[in-house]
Amino acid sequence: MQHDAKLSPATLAAQGTGATPMPHRDIVPPIHLATTFERAEDGSLPGGRIYARDASPAYDPAEALLCELEGGARAALFASGMAAASAVLLALKPGARIVAPHDMYWSLRNWMIGFAANWQIALDFYADAAELAALLQRPADLVWVETPANPTWEILDIARAAELAHAAGARLVVDSTVPTPVFTRPLALGADVVMHSATKYLNGHSDVVAGVLVTRAEDDFWARIKTARAAGGAVLGPFEAWLLNRGLRTLFPRVRTAAASALRIAQHFEHHPALLAVLYPGLPSHRGHDIACRQMEGGFGAMLSLRVRGGEDAARRVAGAVKIFRRATSLGSVESLIEHRGPIEGPGTRCPLDLLRLSVGIEDSDDLIADLEQALQQANEP
Ligand SMILES: *Cc1c(COP(=O)(O)O)cnc(C)c1O
């Protein structure tokens, strides 16, 4: 059923692992809508399924492919990235200790703080690798990593974080939404679980909300995660699962094109007089560049941020003046998005208020550069 394991991930993605649905030998999988599955006369389950909330065949193609792309033992789709992350938190036991980054996806950070407070879970935040090492002098249960991290694209050394986490008795979970399996494979670097908001690059077309977890080992922690999905009920619909599987087929060309454009844009604007800084791990001036070169393969992702000279108002004017970039939250789709991020995150944000977050899509990079040039110029006119 499966292709030879030596095939490149890009080939596997293009063919959706190459599994051929019987009996029609469809080139694309059918949409599986069944919620329940028939028992045989003796009460057994010849189809191997009981009920779609526990395990729907609609998930098989995308879960099989994501397992291969991440090099994991098992994958599980969820109704959103947040549902996937919540399942990890729900798999913890009372009294557990989480160590998480200050800079990470804002909604998840806020949810983690509330969850930890309500469920007697200790939560400590680290700003960098040195603080992570210091916090892991004491035992912990879960270390959360996001790299490159929203919205400044700080880089954390996953292999080092895995060593530290394991020495402290903790599991390492990596939110790998931004680099995607095209550029980073956290499990191969020592992580225990990889999480994605599949709403972003994996689906890639701004038309599905979904999430996924991939585990290195099918252990008791994974069993608790699967229970959190089945019992918590945060399951994806069959049509969304089908769309996600379709989006995954073009993952590699989409993400590679977008990342090549992002690098061009970052290089073009790095010393622009209207900007204080361009934050992109692919630039040698970025703090995390050396580690990024080691742990990201083939590219640095398609997310970057611009810090605009003149503060919050100037940033707002630039965002208001773009014509090709679309003003919207989210990331990872074929169309380029721009967001004046600080005001969106609101009180307590660590995001600089002059920061514009760009999600570079697959448009012609000359058009994107020209658009930003005219917006910076227009924003600076008296
Ligand atoms: C969007 C996002 C999430 C949350 O995922 P949803 O699919 O919106 O629930 C988590 N982490 C990162 C890095 C994201 O970009």
From TrEMBL:
Organism domain of life: Bacteria
Cofactor: pyridoxal 5'-phosphate
The EC number(s) this enzyme carries: 4.4.1.1
Keywords in alphabetical order: Lyase, Pyridoxal phosphate, Transferase
Pfam families for the chain: Cys_Met_Meta_PP (PF01053)
Chain positions with N6-(pyridoxal phosphate)lysine modification: 200
Region feature Disordered, mapped onto this chain: 1-21
A molecular function GO annotation: transferase activity
UniProt cross-references to InterPro entries, sorted A to Z: Cys/Met-Metab_PyrdxlP-dep_enz (IPR000277), Cys_met_metab_PP (IPR054542), PyrdxlP-dep_Trfase (IPR015424), PyrdxlP-dep_Trfase_major (IPR015421), PyrdxlP-dep_Trfase_small (IPR015422)
One cellular component (GO) term of this entry: cytoplasm
GO biological process, one term: cysteine biosynthetic process via cystathionine
PANTHER family in alphabetical order: CYSTATHIONINE GAMMA-LYASE, TRANS-SULFURATION ENZYME FAMILY MEMBER
Family: Belongs to the trans-sulfuration enzymes family.
Name used for this protein in its record: Cystathionine gamma-lyase
Species of the source: Thauera aminoaromatica
